[in-house]
Amino acid sequence: MDFTLNETQRLIQQTARHYAERVIAPQAAAIDEEERFPADILKGLADMGLMAVNVPESLGGSQAGAVAYVLAMIEVARACASTAVTMAVTNMVGEVIARFGTPEQRERCCPRLASGEWLAGAFALSEPEAGSDPGALRTTARRDGDAWVLDGSKQWITSGAYAGVLVVWARTGDQAAYPGTRGISCFLVEQATPGLRIGRAEDKMGIRGSNTVGLHFEECRVPETALLGELHGGFKIAMMALDGGRIGISAQALGIARAALEESVRYAKDRKQFGRPIGDNQAIQWKLAEMQTSIDAAYLLALRAAWMKDHAVPFSREAAMAKMFSTEAAVQICNHAVQIHGGYGYIRDFPAERHLRDVRVSMIYEGTSEIQRVVIARSMLS
């Protein structure tokens, strides 16, 4: 397993880093403060091919692979976590459609997501009563002539108010005949479809520039061609998508952690107490050493999972390990960063407090840390 970057991967990394430092980072604090959906930034990312990194070139994507996607995600998250999560979900949606869609679905949706004509895609699986347990899903889809009619609600949907297309999971089989996850199917629902109502935006602790809403389907009619993949085969699609998505969230957490560490190192050099920089104190040095070691370990776990995905090797366990370790390490790193900054870490004049607010959700979405442990343990015991 060789993690030496090839020319394409280096180019993707450098392109993302340059844009993130020049365009995204200067706006990050304002995006957070104003809860502003960064439409202009997302269009810029699309213009550089970063909204469809692992989508085939024939569908408008970069076809650069999962490792390149990890590298790009780290750079964008290092500048702005809100932008990064929108980028992550849009990439995931594009990959799902490219893999499971019909030729017509792929050709309609993927180029629009890749180009920024559609600013984002949305992944609508979670519901008010079905978060970690998709078998409790209640949204239904019933056949009515040559259409499907969706009824139900979704919760915590990233980019739901801005997505050009939403990948929506609904129960198509009778629960008695198809218990648990067996009767779930997947549908493509475009924005402004009659019967789709966007709920209020959530008032969140962090990633406040990322749009998070509930969705409500009331006699929402979509054509029979909106079915993505096989009838009753939606759970498999969701799990395969989440495997790749967990690599992306691992990279997002890594980017936030790197930003927190870089700011901590600068502060430790500049801040003086008792007549010398606080970085001279062993207590600070030990924190910095632990932070750097955790980041390097998380980076290697993320790259391993991405490399396996690129080489078509089963990677569910490795993605779960990367997601669990990276997110938990990043939360601890950002907490250390606030502690190193002292009182200044608790005020908005310094980014440390934003990084801690932003990173906390990474242990929850795309599968909680507890669910990752279940995935890992089951793979060990099977």
Write a structural description.
By secondary structure, the protein is of the alpha+beta class. The protein folds into three domains: 7-118, Orthogonal Bundle (Butyryl-Coa Dehydrogenase, subunit A, domain 1), CATH 1.10.540.10; 123-232, Butyryl-CoA Dehydrogenase, subunit A, domain 2 (Beta Barrel); 236-381, Butyryl-CoA Dehydrogenase, subunit A, domain 3, CATH 1.20.140.10. Helix content is 52%, strand content 16%. The strands form three sheets. A four-stranded mixed beta sheet has the order 1-4-5-8, with helices on one face. The protein has a four-stranded antiparallel beta sheet with strand order 2-3-7-6, covered by helices on one side. A hairpin with a 2-residue loop joins strand 2 (140-144) and strand 3. Helix 3 packs antiparallel against helix 4 and helix 6 (234-270) packs parallel to helix 8 (316-341). The two termini are 25 Å apart. The model has no long low-confidence stretch (mean pLDDT 97).
